[in-house]
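Cross-posting from the modeling subforum.

Setting up a comparison between two proteins and wanted a second pair of eyes on the formatting. Protein 1 (sequence, then structure tokens):
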Amino acid sequence: MSHEFDLLVIGAGSGGVRCARIAASHGARVAVVESSHWGGTCVNIGCVPKKLMVQASEYGDLVEDSHGFGWSSTRGTHNWATLIAAKDKEISRLNGIYVSMLEKAGITLFTGHARFKDAQSVVIEPSVLAPDATPRTVTAKRIVIATGSTPVKLDIPGADYAITSDDAFYLKERPQRVVLIGSGYIGIEFAGIFAGLGSTVDMVYRQDLPLRGFDEDMRAAMKEAITARGITQHSHASPTKIEKNDTGYAVTLDNGQVLQTDCVFMATGRRPKIDSLGLENAGVQTAKGGRITVNAQQETSQADIYAIGDVTDRINLTPVAIAEGHHLADTLYSKEPPRTWSLDTTPKAVFFSPPMASVGLSEEEAAKNGVLDIYFTRFTPMRHTLSGRKDRKTVMKLVVDQASQKVVGAHILGDDAAEMLQGVAVAVTAGLRKIDFDRTVGIHPTSAEELVTLRTRTRETPKTA
């Protein structure tokens, strides 16, 4: 059977675009189909606009902090519409860059919703980006599914009144009162955005501490940082219903408390975006929650159909999707051995104010492998000795395997945490030992130098069962 293309990528997000471009650079005939956003979730309704909004939320604090350094400045008021317009302009620019990159690589672009007709044929139908498009069928020898994920809401009465992160980027006005449900990356980041811009924020989550899955010490530090940001936390609580009233909305919690608000924001997880893809027509199997099952080579249950990124629900981070897409394209079309990535030491960051970043294992995870040496420090960074913001702490932690003395985990909460952590991630990936940190000369005066001056072990942690 002849095919129009060697490779068809469904989804023009970060992973799909990287896969398409690398495959094309190896000489493959490549096409990409996108239904809603060139650049995908990260560029349009994810990490890029979110970080711009985080940065916007920090300027008020910087004005106040400047007083301790002798500046006579006034905080003023924030114009939400100006921020959203500036954000939209930047996202539009990035959309154009993604389209230009694909076109310059010689890739054929289709706008519309892709639905499998069979294992090697896809019907492209009208979508929000192309509502008047005439349906057409495209054939390809190989197909990559890179459609990402989409937010989910809790199944409670009144859930339709709640917004998700997809909606938050397009709010016409900033709500004065926000009830935010959830305490993962998205929940914490948007709680910080709204609080920093002047909203009253109530944060509701089921656990004792936010950020389930992170190191326990860092979770506790983040809980303190959230409180210091002026956000009210309702831990060990879940919403049972949302009702609309004359002043906004009433959110009833399972502890009987009722929170009055102007906006209910559900940051309660995401699921793979596979709706209407017609996977059953192609014989592609999914697991619980809609995750497309793949092996180590990103192959699905159907030969010549692959899946990368959040649609596989493994490590749902943009750089991971990019790595998977790059590796897959090299594997399929390069004459050279494919480039590899150390996904086990994928660093991650939560862009709160202050941010938190981690790489490697938490203390709880590492203790399953053996006895640990823990190095921990907590201090007020230099800036805030003059700003007067005494509750803005920096927390650092190194998790060291006692037998090998390898640093198997590093965790930072504090100003510039993510910027510091990227370099540390290289060290952890390289398997460097604590002595390598100790013999490295620090940059003074910085917070980062604490990472190489932590000489005294805080505690020994025994191996757990």
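Protein 2 (same layout):
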Amino acid sequence: MAEFIPVPPFDLVVFGATGDLSLRKLFPSLLHRYLDGQIPPQSRIIGAARSDLDTEAFRQMVHESRGKFAPGACVDEAKCAEFMSHVHYARLDASAPANEWGALKQALANGGGNVRIFYLSTAPSLFVTIAQRLAETGLATPDSRIVLEKPIGRDLASSREINDGVGAVFDEHRTFRIDHYLGKETVQNLLVLRFANMLIEPVWSRAYIDHVQITVAEELGVEGRADYYDKSGALRDMVQNHLLQLLCLVALESPNSMEADAIRTEKLKVLSALRRIEAKDAASKTVRGQYRAGLVNGGKAPAYADEVGKVTKTETFVAIKAEVDNWRWAGVPFYLRTGKRMSARRSEIVVQFKDTPVPMFGADAGSPNKLVLRLQPDEGVRLWLNMKEPGPGGLRVKTAALDLSFAEEFGGVRYPDAYERLLMDIVRGNLALFMRRDEVDAAWMWADALLAAWRQAGVEPYGYAAGSNGPTQSALMLDRDGRAWWDPE
């Protein structure tokens, strides 16, 4: 079983503590880390929200969410009860004047030498206000940290406004912009795979790689996020952050070290080299889509318009042919794809290598090598190679996979999920897996240019049936390049 090194004692304040993210991800993650012995007993976890609750009622809410989102975690009920004794609640309207923040000030009193962390699981419109109130109340100590959930704004201008406001209180080295995809086991393994294996890195370039596909597909619709999502769409919600971050980790040059700024500087170089898509190319290099009614897992799924209660042009699917203009990747397309109400929930990176220069075993023998990194639902790595099919009577080539399943290879041991890992990195002060401000700016510059190109070219969403792999036009975009999406059955 893996050993987990305890982090320093901390006080964590979760703003928006009664919201979906907090109850579904943050508190279950903290529970798991406590059960594994990583959270010291001096630590305190304080939920802050407007709901009219006291600490006991809030603990009951966290207890109920545990049963739903962390089933089976509490084999030792006494240990789980011990965790709950570290959970507290402060009723607070985050937009209220500083003189109404007394409950939180009292909850944080007598913290000793604990690291103080403020996690903003709220609407981005509150980020600057909360930071200002933390300064006005004296709660923002010189070594305290702030955590910002995406999205940070909805364009470059609003993102800069948020970062300016928060930055006036918290220095860059104390600001943690979280993207939970960077905490996934396979994403971090991508760096190890590339830079700890001499077999891989020498062929990681345009000389040997034909193209890269990055897919993040969801079975769910907008659920309870209709109001937010309809103002955002798939490009702002997923591409500008998650998919571009994955692209950066695939494409970056070797950092000089694993220090945070060494890695983040290399990611910034990739974003700076990412070619902007202009209006004249918007229709050929991108596809927008919106799901219609269909079947997901054998059940009827409503159309997006029915879920949000109005006809709208917001995209729930986007596919993009992205290009990185540098010496390593010139001429290698990065096909990005994300959508809701897709045929299956999966996130993966597919690196397809070029075909052999001479088809010695016949034009139809085998297929190009592929390296497939699966982020979810079952994390693992597969390398597809061409092998001789067993048996006498001729040489027949078959494509087979060298399959590394994390669950099988590491004995079925439960490893921390993304939020667990990132929360502990915040306590340690490790910024390597968090976005730097200039990264966010560069990503928004690219996304804003694409949004402007869509408006100028009049690119509207195509319809696709819920439970499918997106609009037909997405497949046609790759077909024009003589390629196809990797959609395993």
